[in-house]
């Protein structure tokens, strides 16, 4: 499915939404949908549906949960208190509303602030699908928090349950790689800043091994990043958090200026921005 181009006329390209709440909304309304094909591909492969009890780690504003629930799965989303704004938007998005199209067949939804241990439901059957859709493998140390979270989630799941891990594909097949390099270039003066790096072939397998999981297949999915204009592109990319350290090392205006320059070759004649990307997912199994 091709991402929808959404127009935002109220801001200029140098004035993205301010504050944590604004950034979370930019993520939910602009950026998160770019990963829709990834969510769908994994769910189709695992035949996610009414028998599924799914726990989503780092669920953010909940689009992946919504898709699973729309397929009839019972879903629990978990995210940390540092992303409360995204989780609040997930609650808005997933609140029961019989009047919404497709709501009648939606599976039950639960959202939890904290870690996997906070999502334990002793009186219900264990989970049988674990997802961690936030792409890993492009920043030094970005798996450090995920490995213990996976280990904790494994304790809540059935033996042999599938676990979905996601990451960027090869840099040469991801047009957005050139834009993400801006973050690295601008943070060279900050020694402890997390920096983007090209994804490695075995990133997902390494995380699975560290979490005690057994790889059981993988796939690649085209996830083009499509934006209605430069304004939407800047706001969407900034909402990922990939440029936060760069903004601290320089300033917001400098980061935006360099993002615009990096996007130059991806702006089409009608003003839309289009960047082909490939993402990879790994299916692993719990012990």
Shape: globular
Kindly report the oligomeric state of this protein.
single chain
What structural category do the secondary elements indicate? alpha/beta
Helix content: 25-40%
Runs with pLDDT <50, length 5+?
1-17
Query: Can you tell me the CATH architecture of the domain at 19-175 and 199-228 and 276-285?
Result: 3-Layer(aba) Sandwich
Strand order in space, largest sheet: 3-2-1-4-5-9-6
Encode the helix/strand succession as letters: HHEHEHEEHEHHEEHHHEE
What Rg do the Cα atoms give?
A: 19 Å
Name of the CATH first level of the domain at 19-175 and 199-228 and 276-285: Alpha Beta
Q: How far is it from the N-terminal to the C-terminal residue, by CA?
A: 34 Å
Number of helices: 10
Going by CATH, what is the homologous superfamily of the domain at 19-175 and 199-228 and 276-285? Vaccinia Virus protein VP39
Number of E-state strands: 9
Strand content: 15-25%
Mean pLDDT: 88
Kindly identify the CATH topology of the domain at 19-175 and 199-228 and 276-285.
Rossmann fold
User: Can you summarize the main beta sheet?
Assistant: 7 strands, mixed
């Amino acid at each position: 499915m091709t991402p929808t181009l959404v127009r935002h006329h109220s801001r200029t390209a140098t004035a993205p939404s301010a504050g944590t709440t604004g950034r979370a909304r930019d993520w939910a309304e602009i950026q998160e949908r770019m990963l829709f094909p990834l969510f769908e591909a994994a769910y189709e492969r695992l035949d996610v549906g009414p028998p599924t009890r799914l726990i989503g780690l780092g669920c953010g504003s909940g689009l992946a949960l919504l898709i699973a629930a729309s397929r009839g799965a019972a879903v629990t989303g978990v995210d940390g208190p540092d992303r409360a704004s995204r989780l609040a938007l997930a609650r808005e998005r997933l609140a029961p509303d019989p009047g919404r199209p497709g709501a009648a067949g939606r599976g039950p939804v639960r959202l939890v602030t904290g870690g996997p241990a906070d999502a334990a439901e002793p009186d219900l059957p264990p989970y049988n699908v674990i997802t961690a859709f936030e792409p890993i493998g492009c920043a030094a140390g970005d798996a450090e928090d995920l490995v213990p979270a996976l280990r904790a989630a494994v304790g809540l799941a059935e033996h042999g349950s599938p676990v979905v891990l996601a990451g960027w594909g090869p840099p040469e097949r991801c047009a957005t790689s050139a834009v993400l390099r801006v973050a690295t270039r601008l943070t060279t003066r900050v020694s402890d800043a997390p920096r983007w790096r090209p994804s490695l072939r075995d990133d997902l397998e390494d995380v699975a091994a560290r979490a005690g999981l057994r790889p059981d297949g993988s796939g690649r999915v085209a996830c083009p990043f499509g934006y209605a204009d430069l304004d939407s592109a800047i706001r969407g990319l900034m909402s990922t958090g990939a440029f936060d350290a760069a903004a601290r090392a320089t300033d917001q205006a400098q980061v935006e200026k360099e993002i615009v320059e990096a996007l130059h070759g991806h702006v089409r004649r009608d003003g839309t921005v289009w960047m082909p990307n490939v993402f990879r997912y790994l299916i692993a199994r719990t012990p």
